[in-house]
């Protein structure tokens, strides 16, 4: 089974979230998603999230909070969704995909990758309701 991870990075006052304008894979091109990607075999999903966040935004975040796991049976893959806090002013686009720092109340208006809004709402529940 192939594993992927997806991470929502919030500012410390819960008003903004860091997302990314996707160019790849092709089915995500032109849409906005959370940061993330492949989890290597024998790699913990949270470690992959740290690696991918650093690679895509320059932010080194060690403490990720697990939001959910989502198994895609038809694709034989599993998606691990995480959230974290960081100083978003320190984030920089380090790839050809540009970062988006969005106000929380505007995320639903963005052209999101399918299901991103569902995972975003679950991340909000973890960040705000569980007070992590």
Q: What count of helical segments does DSSP give? A: 2
Describe the largest sheet.
Answer: 7 strands, mixed
Record field, number of beta strands: 7
Domain module tally: 1
Distance between the termini: 30 Å
| Low-confidence blocks of residues | none
In CATH, what is the class? Alpha Beta
The CATH homologous superfamily is termed: Nucleoside Triphosphate Pyrophosphohydrolase
Give the % helix. Answer: 10-25%
Strand content: 25-35%
Structural class based on helices, strands and sheet pairing: alpha+beta
Over all CA atoms, what is the radius of gyration? 14 Å
On the 0 to 100 scale, the average pLDDT is 94
What is the string of helix and strand elements?
EEEEHEEEH
> What is the fold-level CATH name, i.e. the topology?
Nucleoside Triphosphate Pyrophosphohydrolase
Q: What's the CATH architecture name?
A: Alpha-Beta Complex
Q: What is the general shape?
A: globular
Blueprint (SSEs and pairs):
Blueprint: E1 2-10, E2 16-21, E3 32-33, E4 35-39, H1 45-57, E5 65-72, E6 77-85, E7 99-103, H2 116-129
Parallel strand pairs: 1-6
Antiparallel strand pairs: 1-2, 1-4, 2-3, 2-7, 5-6
